Amino acid sequence: MRRAARLGSGAAAVVPRSRTLVLTSRPGFSNSPNRNAARSNQRSFQSGSKLDSVAEATVIGGPSPLPEVELPEIPETPTKNKRVTIGEILERRRKAGRLVAPTAAGCDSGVFKGDSTGKPPAKDLSHHLSFEAAIREPCKLKQAARHLKTPGIISLGGGLPCPEYFPISSISLNVPDYLHSPTLSPPEVHPALQDITIGKYDTLPSAPDRKEYDLSIALNYAQAHGSAQLIRFVTEHTELVSNPPYADWKTCLTVGSTGALEQTLRMLCDASRNDSILTEEFSFATALETAHPLGIPTFGVPIDDQGLIPSQLDHILSTWNPSERRGRRKPHILYTVPSGQNPTGATQGPERRKQIYDVCSKHDLVIIEDEPYYYLQLPPTTAPAATPTNTTDFLESLLPTLLSMDTDGRVIRMDSFSKVLVPGSRLGWLTASDRFIERFLRHAEVANQGPSGFSQVILHKLLDETWGHEGYLKWLMVLQKEYTERRNTLLKACDEHLPKEVVSWEVVRAGMFQWLHLNHHLHPDFQTKSILEIEEEIFNSCISKGVLIARGSWFRAEQDLPPTGLYFRATYAAATPENMTEAIKRLGVAVRESFRL
Amino acid sequence: MRRAARLGSGAAAVVPRSRTLVLTSRPGFSNSPNRNAARSNQRSFQSGSKLDSVAEATVIGGPSPLPEVELPEIPETPTKNKRVTIGEILERRRKAGRLVAPTAAGCDSGVFKGDSTGKPPAKDLSHHLSFEAAIREPCKLKQAARHLKTPGIISLGGGLPCPEYFPISSISLNVPDYLHSPTLSPPEVHPALQDITIGKYDTLPSAPDRKEYDLSIALNYAQAHGSAQLIRFVTEHTELVSNPPYADWKTCLTVGSTGALEQTLRMLCDASRNDSILTEEFSFATALETAHPLGIPTFGVPIDDQGLIPSQLDHILSTWNPSERRGRRKPHILYTVPSGQNPTGATQGPERRKQIYDVCSKHDLVIIEDEPYYYLQLPPTTAPAATPTNTTDFLESLLPTLLSMDTDGRVIRMDSFSKVLVPGSRLGWLTASDRFIERFLRHAEVANQGPSGFSQVILHKLLDETWGHEGYLKWLMVLQKEYTERRNTLLKACDEHLPKEVVSWEVVRAGMFQWLHLNHHLHPDFQTKSILEIEEEIFNSCISKGVLIARGSWFRAEQDLPPTGLYFRATYAAATPENMTEAIKRLGVAVRESFRL
């Protein structure tokens, strides 16, 4: 086992913080074994030649055979899904040294992971790939860039503009300090605001306060997987939260989960193969609208207050008959939102998750775990509840992700910053097996080329350089507190203003949406009007009374079947507490009028 | 003809600058006729019900019947592709008043256009749509948002986070002042730098220096077409440069031209219909790699130093025989880069463009006009040349775009900020007929949801609010000057260091690439080695000598045919002048060695 440093090995051995993890410029290319700067026994996960990742991170500089005693205290035993701590990550970074990832540097997220010893490799699920995904070839021009690693080479190759022509010399942000301040106040009343500045050449050795990322890198062309600087953060964050129990998981940035879902569906689904998708019987309308134009129908799985019912999922798959299912073969994809599901707000409990995973494993399904609301987990009741007081407890309090139980590598998890930072970042990340990530990236290269450099450098500056993992988790605790209050306000209003003889609900445990069930059997026009007609009547009445609410029928996975229940979705994310209460009052009037109560 | 103002009509009539163009929040919905705030006789282009745009801009406030004498001096006669001036645009804006486009406001770019009277409508080319594009439905949730226009309505509808949870209260940029400073220096030596700041609530009436766009809007969810604020700028810019000669052209933002191309191909091409694409015989490698996984082959059209040869294009189309063309039906798409084509650098002259357009019209082709290098138009020789001294002359000096001669609405033009501002913006725009833009957006809604809000608000702040059209055009003049110098440096080095007995070139007239032709007939191994073998030998020799250059064969539209010539592509965009000269010197040595000169 060797490790490498950019500076002379002697200096590196004495001053570990001067070590340098160098990612090659626009690579994808190295045949050298993947050596981990942190000596964390990082494996090099070489997949089949067809699926080889273009991008590969390397560590340059002479490998220095350091005595064992100097090595970091990272456990050599299999971690087996044990939680990784922030302290371990900080120590790993310290040992790895400065990250050097210049313009358009390739990056294998694996170099930022901890020890994978003892974890099994992902199963080969490449038989699920679509024709389009299977035949993709790496970009020729990006492949050629591997030669830029050659010392002293001058490039007349790629058409990358010089940063001297970028007409922005610095970007400054004003942000709350969640790392150092003990106050968990929301941003606009936070007592400790700070200005942080990103310069054009902050990574130059001559920079006064040298950084790892700057505008000259972030605003130029980049690899589709996103910058190494931000990939490091999301990879570590994924370890903190999920620490997937198989070895060759990877991450890459996305342009947000909406785009990531479309790319994933194109990667896995072929209309000509009679593919289809299973999902909650009420499912995110935009997800359904993403699948349908591709010729991919969606089929609903019955749900209860914990979402998908595993026995029903198993039954559907075990008894699948194409002739009863519009000619579609047995599905190989489950799309699910486990926490604060959209629209029902249902949140799968720990046992439920394990059961769903096991059914999917039994039937060889790929699971798309779409988790925009994961961090908005809320107390089970509106009564005052003990909440985590530190980030360790906060992490412990989070429900296990499907990814955290994914021994097969069949979960494709989509994370998003839209609900927890700003939707306008159009930036999220994917975690999946190396095989899937690699195919996904071959598409991203010709589709969106990864997220905006402005978004990347601003999020890196805020999350990584300013807040760090500790500060970011504190920020998530702030959000949790805020959304708990918002939910409680809505529920109090429901309790006071909705006619409980016809409207019922479960206290939502995560996310942004409260699902309301109206007993249509009690509607006076039950015999003469359809559910859709009653729903429309109430919806229109709400509009005329000044409240917009989402109709349950919009979210039905199978729009061709008649609805069996009457539902509405209400968000507590958008309105002020006063307006929310007023809106529920108006809804109550509309329901009473329709039901003639 | 009426116009509207948000304030009392009396005040509006007296103080035109207080008028307010209001775009509805998350609309797409209004059935009201499209009224133009600037009284510019803007038509409302209603397409068929299937193709109706979701987004529609409206003007609210009481219509005030103002006396004719107060109306702006915008000519009532057909403009017929006459150049629009910056003065006219500024006057139009002044009359329209403040743009009010709140969070996720819908926007029909048509409201920002000048008079279209007398221009014909686009031809209906919807028979070219792919199956996927034809069946797309608007997003249900975005449609529902039309109700937000209802006065006093409270939304429990969409899950948009409150901006109070955006943990960034302001963003500041340091930028050169190209509007006021007479100096056309590049950014890093510019004498007038200024700090500009974007606040979270700059659009509030209570804001000290009230603006039209802020972080609370830009960083929340938005419509896929992009913000009205930036659409206005690119629409006006398109008028300044192209002023398309048909009535119902529209613009929308894209996540850059790479992504826009993929979306466009999916919109227009079906493998099952035996579709294919025509392009330059040497074409942008990434474009080819975008088409192929979709099952869409590319066929090359012969080129000369002005790019595509119209007679050859006509011949190919007139004599198309599927059995000789891998079973493909006669193509209906031309993909072309008219200015500084990648890789050949060829630039179509004005007459050439018209001829190409006419052939495409004759054979009913849709033209994808991909123009990242359009503004990098360079003098015809390296001799000192008179360059435009003001923005009017600069605009006059630009080659006519295919869009500017598009009477049919068959051009889909892709513009990009990558080469003229920063590639990392991942932001560009599309100009095409309303029908195509609308279908494109139905895809964007479920694919990427439009560009990053950080990119949008930063570019708006810089381009629109700080520089304006005048400052932006001056900036483009700076770039033109800089790239002229870079090109001349490369050409001087070629002249001095390449063996002209075997290497020849045309002085490139636009873009970033110089195309070099090597006469392989003069190669000593001509009889025993293939062109590809000689090309590889020289390429590898270059690498070993320390220069990376692009191989011509990478760009061949038809990779299955044997190459007929030996070419290399050299960029003058990336290296310093000294390095560029050194690199060409090394290339010269490699060529001499291979040719044994």
UniProtKB/TrEMBL annotation, chains A, B:
Transmembrane segments: none annotated. It is found in: Cytoplasm. Its cofactor is pyridoxal 5'-phosphate. GO terms for biological process: aromatic amino acid family catabolic process; lysine biosynthetic process via aminoadipic acid; tyrosine biosynthetic process. Residues 24-52 are annotated as: Disordered. Keywords: Aminotransferase, Cytoplasm, Pyridoxal phosphate, Transferase. It is an enzyme of class 2 (transferase). It catalyses: an aromatic L-alpha-amino acid + 2-oxoglutarate = an aromatic oxo-acid + L-glutamate. SUPFAM superfamilies: PLP-dependent transferases. Residues 212-587 form the Aminotransferase class I/classII large domain. It comes from the Eukaryota. Its EC number is 2.6.1.57. GO terms for molecular function: 2-aminoadipate transaminase activity; aromatic-amino-acid transaminase activity; pyridoxal phosphate binding. One of its GO terms (cellular component) is cytoplasm. Residues 30-44 have a biased composition (Low complexity). Pfam families: Aminotran_1_2. Its main location: cytoplasm. The keyword Transferase applies. Belongs to the class-I pyridoxal-phosphate-dependent aminotransferase family. This is aromatic-amino-acid transaminase. The lineage of its organism: Eukaryota, Fungi, Dikarya, Ascomycota, Pezizomycotina.
